[in-house]
Specification:
This protein has 295 residues and is mainly alpha-helical. It has one domain. It is built from 10 helices and no strands. Helix 8 (177-206) packs parallel to helix 10. Keywords: Membrane, Transmembrane, Transmembrane helix. This is PQ loop repeat protein-like protein.
């Protein structure tokens, strides 16, 4: 790790030695919020015992984007400067300085777990009684098990690529580290953008969110903008490739959330209509039953 550190910037270290308590509290809140926001998605897949409704490309691109994002912030000169300062400042200031890295690390870990749950509970075929309107969905349009395995293979392959590439640039070509970090950031942004396209298509095709957690999106959509603001406060304009990702994905996730809420509202109204019809039918039959009892 020592070789990864760039020369210590003593001015920066003096600044980090006295962390702002309010900023630290907000950053910790964001880390906890990221973890909590993913729990509804984990729970929904496990509770339904099915990952139907999640697009394989959504899971793949999200995992690869997260890997690129964590590699991006680990190799950004601003981040390596902060890590180098941990040699000169106390444990608490060091922890405060590295919270930006922790935020992205927690997010990557949580999404990687979604990928594992996606594989574990991948539906080989529509499940009547669990998947709404399963019989109405063309099984030929649903993802296959081979596609699910491909998600894991490509995700692991990119992880190896990002790791080896980062080591090469940090150790062998340090003058090009920022270019590499910006490349990873741009890649993460592009993949995160493309990530929502197959999921939006899948949700639109199913006409329901399925195993996609609406609660997660309700937390994450506004949280993305708070997260971006926190990263901007730490990295400044030079870290645009890191915080810009979360502004962009927040907008796209908001679109998916609006679609999911629309389908849920439609289903709720339909249930109310059916319940009302059943109630009306019951009311119409009641007088007949009373007449029969009297006679």
């Amino acid at each position: 790790m020592d070789a990864l550190m760039k020369p210590i910037d003593h001015a920066r270290c003096r600044e980090l030695a006295h962390p702002d308590i309010a900023n630290f509290a907000v950053s910790v809140f964001i880390v906890v919020g990221i973890l909590v926001s993913y729990l509804p998605q984990h729970y929904k897949i496990i509770e339904r015992r099915s990952s139907r409704g999640l697009s394989p490309l959504f899971v793949l691109l999200g995992t690869v984007s997260g890997t690129a994002s964590i590699a991006n912030i680990l190799t950004l000169p601003e981040s390596t400067t902060d890590m180098a300062c941990c040699k000169e400042i106390g444990r608490f200031p060091c922890a405060a300085a590295l919270l930006g890295i922790a935020q992205i690390g927690v997010q990557w870990t949580c999404f990687f777990f979604i990928m594992l749950l996606f594989l574990i509970f991948f539906p080989r075929a529509p499940i009547p009684g669990i998947d709404q309107d399963a019989e109405d969905v063309d099984s030929s349009k649903m993802p296959t098990w081979k596609e699910a395995v491909l998600v894991l293979a490509v995700s692991l392959a990119f992880f190896v690529f990002a790791f080896i590439g980062s080591v090469v640039f940090v150790y062998a070509m340090p003058s090009h580290v920022r270019a590499w970090a910006n490349f990873l950031g741009l890649l993460a942004t592009v993949l995160a953008a493309v990530q929502y396209i197959p999921q939006i298509i899948t949700t639109w095709r199913l006409k329901e969110p399925g195993s996609l957690s609406v609660v997660m999106m309700c937390i994450q959509t506004p949280g993305s903008f708070v997260f971006a603001a926190s990263l901007y406060a730490r990295l400044g304009k030079g870290g645009w490739s890191a915080w810009g990702l979360f502004i962009f994905t927040g907008c796209l996730q908001g679109c998916l959330l609006a679609m999911s809420l629309t389908f849920l509202w439609r289903d709720r109204q339909e249930r109310k209509r059916l319940e009302q019809e059943e109630s009306d039918d019951s009311s119409e039959r009641t007088p007949l039953l009373v007449t029969e009892d009297i006679s």
